[in-house]
Design brief:
The chain has 399 residues and is an alpha/beta fold. The protein is built from 15 helices and 15 strands. It has 2 domains: 242 residues, Alkaline Phosphatase, subunit A, CATH 3.40.720; 130 residues, no CATH class. Strand 8, helix 10 and strand 9 form a beta-alpha-beta unit. The protein binds zinc ion (ZN).
């Protein structure tokens, strides 16, 4: 059996006024996702256990089949794993955004999706001027970097995800509690250091937002996940442009497939993701997980049209081609579409609500649902209150 899991990040949503009371998934045309829903089983999964913030770190951990209550220590340790950063016992990893603040207001958590090349230069400057033996910076993809800080106290610092405070004054959202003074000092120093950096001068001259501040959040100590192959008996691989998903993959023993041209954004190489996944399934992997970030990014921008476009791109360039190929090969195969959390386009952020899923197994059971969107699935009776159990159900294995 070939297993494929497709995660269009944050694809779930709420009905929005901008779409006449419908959700982006309801308005978008996605015949291939609908076919999976129509011929398979649909339902809801609570990927965010109560008490957890609805982030991709928590939601994706559930989707990968791991209970966040047992395994989640923070978001940054997962991203650090993706970069091959080994955390020692006393280390606390923070997510470090290079972002845009103007007149004390959080303008853009991504600094206009600064390129990896540009932000790497900024992090290099930060390492030269602000790092110490206890504080080390590691450049990541686009605006997403890692700070490794030594000291237990940092795991207790209260931090705020920057994408949750867009267009709001940052003053009351700066780090607080244990370790916060040092972090706030670093953030302040980063403003001074970055404002005149040549990368930012060029960006501003080109009409782009500068990455003029570092912002720390999502921290945690090292975590480990039991190997997926040991738990489920399957050799697995994963495709994602973002460190958080690759990090969960690394920790769970997935092979991380490198696909050229994947960006975590609207210009990503959707087709390449499908091609590489199919190739891996023909080369000895039992399961491939494809994660797509663009659907979530559109939600954060509050742009329903872009989200619809991203959903349609995923359907046309990933779901369609893989379905066609797997069917042509004659099977057997099983495919699951699910996301990590809904992203509300109206609120521009994640919400802690159950996510819709659809799964199809050749010759497997089917329900009455004929389309893949929230209202079509509303009455589906399959519900996973523990979202991490969906993986076992999909693989028809119990742990
Ligand atoms: Zn998001």
């Amino acid at each position: 059996m070939k297993y494929l899991v497709i995660i269009p990040d944050g694809i779930g949503d709420r009905p929005t006024e901008a779409l006449g009371g419908k959700t982006p998934l309801e308005v978008a045309r996605h015949p291939h996702m609908d076919a999976i829903a129509q011929q398979g089983i649909t339902g809801w999964a609570h990927t965010i256990p109560s008490g957890f913030a609805p982030g991709s770190d928590v939601g994706c951990m559930s989707v990968f089949g791991y209970d966040p209550r047992k395994h989640h220590t923070g978001r940054a340790p997962l991203e650090a794993a993706a970069q091959g950063i080994i955390l020692k016992d006393a280390d606390v990893a923070f997510r470090c955004n290079t972002l845009t603040v103007s007149d004390g207001v959080m303008i853009d958590h991504s600094a206009d999706h600064i390129t990896t090349e540009e932000s790497s230069q900024l992090i290099q400057a930060v390492n030269e001027k602000l790092a110490s033996k206890e504080m080390r910076f590691y450049p990541g993809v686009s605006y997403r970097h890692i700070l490794v800080a030594q000291g237990e106290a940092f795991s207790q610092t209260r931090c705020t995800p920057p994408h949750d405070i867009l267009d709001r004054p940052i003053a009351s959202f700066l780090p607080s509690g244990p370790g916060s003074e040092l972090l706030k000092k670093l953030m302040q120093e980063s403003v001074e250091l970055l404002k005149d950096h040549s990368v930012n001068k060029k960006r501003m001259a080109a009409g782009k937002r500068p990455a003029n501040m570092l912002w720390f959040w999502g921290q945690g100590k090292a975590t480990n996940l039991p190997p997926f192959q040991k738990t489920y008996g399957l050799k697995a691989a994963c495709i994602s442009a973002v460190d958080i998903v690759r990090g969960i993959g690394v920790l769970a023993g997935f092979q991380i497939l490198k696909v050229p041209g994947i960006t975590g954004y609207f210009d990503t190489n959707y087709k390449g993701k499908a091609e590489y996944a199919l190739k891996a399934l023909n080369e000895g992997f039992d399961l491939v997980l494809i994660h797509v970030e663009s659907t979530d990014e559109a939600g954060h921008m509050g742009d329903a049209k872009k989200k619809i476009q991203a959903i349609e791109d995923v359907d046309r360039l990933i779901v369609g081609p893989v379905l066609q190929q797997l069917q042509q090969e004659g099977g057997p195969f099983s495919i699951l579409i699910v996301c990590d959390h809904p992203t509300s386009t109206a609120l521009k952020t994640h919400i802690a609500k159950p996510v819709p899923f659809a799964l199809y197994t050749q010759g497997g059971p089917r329900d009455e649902v004929a389309a893949f969107h929230e209202s079509a699935i509303a009455n589906s009776t399959v519900q996973f209150t523990e979202g991490f159990e969906l993986m076992g159900y999909f693989l028809q294995r119990t742990r």
